[in-house]
Amino acid sequence: MSPLWDADNALIAAKKNHKKIPAELRFGELNPGQQVLDTETKLIHHGIRIAAYNTAMTIAREIRTNTGYKTPSRKPAR
């Protein structure tokens, strides 16, 4: 067979294997028997919130400084 057919067949097989992998795992499935403390869950949640906030602020700063975007004036027009 040609290398193109071999690569195509390998891609199809890889896609089939990839679909078998679950998209989400629960904490218990990842490490059975591990006790997840409420404090641990709160820390993970807090870390994700901080990361999301930092990302949003970084994007806003980059838009403001690199594109020349300015917020509209809040004074009413006369």
Q: Count the strands? A: 0
Strand content: under 5%
Order of helices and strands: HHH
Terminal CA distance reads 77 Å
What would you report as the Rg, rounded to the nearest angstrom? 24 Å
What is the average per-residue confidence, as pLDDT, rounded to a whole number?
83
What is the count of helical runs? 3
Low-confidence stretches: none
Based on CA inertia axes, which overall geometry fits?
Answer: flat
The major pleated sheet works out as: none
Measured as a percent range, the helix fraction is 55-70%
| Helix/strand structural class | mainly alpha
Describe this structure in words.
The chain is mainly α and 78 residues long. The protein has a domain of 30 residues. 64% of the residues lie in helices and 0% in strands. The longest helix is centred in the middle third of the chain and has 29 residues. It is flat.
Key features?
78 residues; 3 helices; single chain
Quick overview:
With about 80 residues, the protein is mostly helical. The protein is built from 3 helices and no strands.
Outline the secondary-structure elements:
Elements: H1 3-19, H2 27-30, H3 38-66
